[in-house]
Amino acid sequence: MTTSKKTIIISVAIVASLTFYFTLSVFYLPDFYQSLKTPIPIPFLSEVKISESMIHFGNSFDIEITATNTGDTADHQTVSVAFLNLTQTEGFVQITKYNFPQSPFLIQVGDEINYDYASSEDTITAPYPAIEAYGRPWESNVTYHLGLKVTPEELGTFVFYVKSVGQPHTDDLSHFPSDGLIDYQREFVKVYSVNVTEP
Questions:
Q1: 141 in Cβ contact with 69 (< 8 Å)
Q2: What residues contact residue 163 under an 8 Å CB cut-off, 6+ apart?
Q3: What is the pLDDT of residues 42-100, one digit of tens each?
Q4: Which of 103, 116, 135, 168 gets the most CB atoms within 10 Å of its CB?
C-alpha cells in the first residue's frame, strides 16, 4: 500500500470520527443529560429529644437527634445544632454518640461559612458556635443519630437551633424545616430552649 493511500485512509477515518463525535455531542448528548433525573434529597428530623426543660446553672442537659433522608440519595446532607448563648463549644458541648459515616465537626465564632447555594463563593462569618454532623453520601431512607451533652455558659434562657440540609440543593424539600425562623445562613431552623436557673 502506497503512502498516499495510507494518508487517504487515515484522513477518512479522522473525518468519520470527528463527524460521529460532533453529531453525538450536538444531537444526542444534550437530550440525554437533560433527561437524567436530578436527585431530590428530603431531610427529615424525626426526633429532637431534650433531657431537661429546666436545669440549675452548672448542670448539663442532653440532646438526642434522629435524622433521616426520606428522598433520593444526597451527595451530602448535614444536621446542624447551633448554640446562640455560647461563645465557644470547648468545655460546654460534648459529643456523646453518633453513627454518621464522617466525624462531626465544630463551627466556631468567626469561621467563614457558606450561605447561598447559588454560588459556593458566598460566605458569612459565624456569629455563634455550632456542631455539624453529615453523611457524604447519605443514602435514601437511611437514619443517623447524634447525641450531645450541653452545659450552658450563663443563667437565663438557653437557645439552640437545629436544621438539616441536603445536597444537591434542588428546592424547598432540601431543607428541614421548610418554614419558621431563618438563621444567619438564610436557612429555616427549629428553635429549642432550656431554662437555666440559680442553683
A1: yes
A2: 79, 80, 175, 176, 177, 183, 187, 188, 189, 190
A3: 999 999 999 999 999 999 999 999 999 999 999 999 999 999 999 999 999 999 999 99
A4: 135
Cell of 173: 424539600
42 φ, ψ (degrees, to nearest 5):
-130, 95
Q: Where are the domains of the chain?
A: 1-36, 43-197
DSSP 27: I
| Contact between residue 194 and residue 63 where contact means Cβ atoms under 8 Å apart | no
- Cis bond leading into 177, ω under 30°? yes
Residue 127: per-residue pLDDT = 95
CA quadruple 110, 175, 152, 198: dihedral sign? positive
CATH class of the domain whose range is 43-197: mainly beta
